[in-house]
Amino acid sequence: MSVCPQGHASDDDEFCDLCGLAIGGTAGPAVRAVGSGAALDPGGPHTVSLTADPDTPPPGTRCASCGGDLSGRFCEVCGHDWLQPVTAPAVSPSEPAASEPPLAQGSWVARVSADRAYFDSVVSEGPTSGAIGFPPFCPERTFRLAGTQVTVGRASRSRGIHPDIDLTGPPEDPGVSHLHAMLLARDDGGWSVVDLGSANGTDIGGVALPANAPRPVSDGDVIHLGAWTRITLRRG
């Protein structure tokens, strides 16, 4: 067995079985490696050329999608193909905050609040003066008018009364009857109000309504009832 100038053992006495160098020749340059997978370069017996897999990323490459280490074409974390560009996800416009739908043209609402001036005018003159106090806080409430009849009053379970505009509270106006008044839809799209024979009456603009006699109302009219309840009718 012979030994070539590179130190390889060879059964061939003329040329090395491993590197092809002539057994009697001189040692050539050190073997040069290129890439990560070796293959003999036809340019010379001492140069090794490595042809990398075109689908495999170079060592140390990170996934462009999730930033993980890549050992192959597809990321083992998110499955992204490293040969494909990363596209930013489509950004949809933010959804507007949910809100109450606007009133359709011709729709009506009743806004309920407490009226201190009305309270002072009716309670100070009545027999219950001093027994009923004005509420320290009364949030405004809004009721949509729908159908042909809208009842106004205070609910009573025992009597099975459940008004459409329930003024039970809190705070509760003790001067409001359980079935106090009613709003009636008119053919022209407007409304009328009728007092249902309540104990303390109903008035519009300071004028008391006779019981069971409908009175047409206009946009912005104010209805007073009870000790301090103010109902303002508004058209959308």
Helix share, percent: under 10%
Report on the biggest sheet.
Answer: 6 strands, antiparallel
CATH architecture of the largest domain: Sandwich
Class from secondary-structure proportions = mainly beta
Keywords, separated by commas or semicolons:
about 240 residues; mainly beta; Tumour Suppressor Smad4; 3 domains; 6-stranded antiparallel sheet; 5-stranded mixed sheet; 16 strands; rod-shaped
Give a written overview of the molecule.
- The chain has 236 residues and is mainly β.
- It folds into 3 domains: 47 residues, no CATH class; 31 residues, no CATH class; 128 residues, Tumour Suppressor Smad4.
- It is 3% helix and 26% strand.
- It contains 1 helix and 16 strands.
- Strand 12 and strand 13 form a beta hairpin.
